[in-house]
Write a structure and sequence with these properties.
alpha/beta; UDP-n-acetylglucosamine1-carboxyvinyl-transferase, Chain; four-stranded mixed beta sheet; 22 strands; binds ligand SPQ
Length: 425
């Protein structure tokens, strides 16, 4: 991978729709009455896995490009799946759908790819079982395949040991079908797209601090959803513009929901020159972000901000290599159970590029300022690793090769096309 970036990155990009919101739009649309129209839907492999699962349960989903129509079957209208439900690489699909499947009047089985097979499912099996669900890990290892026999559920209050939107959402979706109220308290607030969308679809949801609650419902109502651009995808070009001298980039229509904007906060703390334009604040807030090359300083990233930037940490770690001083990332042990062990994979790959970086139990320490050099980067088939290191490659001496770089299709199929657009000779 060799790019000519002598004059920096310039121009504007509209990144694809938000992955988390696209998943949730299909899920709620499928169990709502009426049709849900989703604009700027992310046609990444993960969201296509969600569509495939609901299609197998008799939901008609049509549309081309990024506009889709989900013809909902109603809260209790899903059909016994014709085949096993294949969640592919997607933790979101698996964990969120489990909450819905736990309340259906049929048995279903969910499988996934080799990465998904090693991701922990105990975190949803435990609370869903407390609600009365019959959910088992077929191999007894608390991973997929999961077999779920639906039944009547009872509302619970669950104190989650992890700040995880997938755990919270799985329980809240099950709570739609449960008797009484269901609530989840997390140690720090995770992304709240499920709560916002449930409320738009007519559910009684409330949030207070780090607790979200939902009442059992009889019906949800199909909606029109305009999906904002994915801040996790914008993160790559944001970082590229910050580290490549001479750059100025405009990122159009990026979702800046406060539960997702941790990277913007951290970049500002590091000294980034970035501003918002055309701010929209109703529903899912979004804005255009203007970013220019900047001199960066190391920072400490820890505590409640971690869930607000969890998927951006691979990119932030790369950014820290170009900052003066030390960056410490703590409280991020969750990175170990993503599509790869992202702490280990970031540290190994940045070390291969010559960075001064040290792995810790729950994060890493990066002493910035050491020039990086090209290397063979093992993506471990993890989309966020492939994209973060493609950006690192822009500002280092020599050639970089990323293994299995097609994994970007999981969340950003156009990634390399968009990157080239910003690079002018
Ligand atoms: O869906 P998946 O595979 O878990 O995707 C990832 C990603 O990097 O795209 C995590 F690996 O994003 C998760 C995110 O980390 C998507 C998500 C959601 O849509 O609810 C929530 C986060 O996971 P968690 O476990 O912290 O709730």
């Amino acid at each position: 991978m060799i790019y000519n970036i002598k004059k920096g990155l310039h121009g504007e990009i509209t990144v694809p729709g938000d992955k988390s919101i696209s998943h949730r739009g299909v899920m709620l649309g499928a169990i709502a009455s009426g049709t849900t129209e989703i604009n700027n839907f992310l046609r990444g492999a993960d969201c296509l896995s969600t569509i495939a699962c609901f299609s197998k349960m008799g939901v008609e989903i049509e549309g081309t490009h990024d506009r889709i129509l989900v013809h909902g079957n109603g809260l209790r209208g899903l059909k016994t799946p014709r085949q096993i439900l294949d969640c592919g690489n997607s933790g979101t699909t698996t964990r969120l759908i489990s909450g819905i499947l736990s309340a259906q009047n049929f048995t279903s089985t969910m499988v996934g790819d080799s990465s998904l097979k090693s991701r922990p499912m105990r975190r949803i099996i435990k609370p869903l079982s407390q609600m009365g669900a019959n959910i088992t890990s077929v191999l007894g290892n608390d991973c997929v395949p999961l077999r779920i026999s639906g039944c009547q559920l009872t509302g619970i209050h669950y104190a989650s040991p992890v700040a995880s939107a997938q755990v919270k959402s799985s329980i809240l979706l099950a709570g739609l079908y449960a008797d009484g109220e269901t609530s989840v308290t997390e140690p720090a607030l995770s992304r709240n797209h499920t709560e916002l969308m449930l409320s738009a679809f007519g559910a009684k949801v409330s949030s207070s601090g780090t607790t979200a609650s939902v009442q059992g419902v009889k019906e949800l109502y199909g909606q029109k959803i305009d999906v904002p651009g994915d801040i996790s995808s914008a993160a790559y070009f944001l970082a590229a513009a910050l580290i490549v001298p001479g750059s100025e980039v405009v990122l159009r229509n990026v979702g800046i929901n406060h539960t997702r904007d941790g990277m913007l906060t951290v970049c500002k703390q590091m000294g980034a020159n970035l501003t918002y334009e055309n701010l929209k604040i109703s529903g899912e807030p979004c804005a255009d972000i203007v970013v220019r090359h900047s001199e960066l300083q190391g920072v400490t990233i820890e505590g409640e901000i971690i869930p607000r930037l969890i998927d951006e940490l691979p990119m932030i770690a790369v950014l820290a290599c170009f900052a003066k001083g030390t960056t410490v990332i703590r409280d991020a042990a969750e990175l170990k159970v993503k599509e790869s062990n992202r702490i280990r994979v970031i540290v190994d790959n940045l070390s291969a590029m010559g960075a001064d970086i040290e792995e810790t139990d729950d994060g890493m320490i990066i002493r910035g300022g050491k020039p990086l050099h090209g290397a063979v980067i093992d993506s471990h088939n993890d989309h966020r690793i492939a994209m973060s290191f493609s950006i690192a490659a822009l500002n280092c001496e020599g050639e970089t090769t990323i293994t299995r770089k097609d994994c970007v299709n999981i969340s950003y199929p156009r990634f390399y096309i968009d990157l080239k657009k910003l690079i002018r000779d």
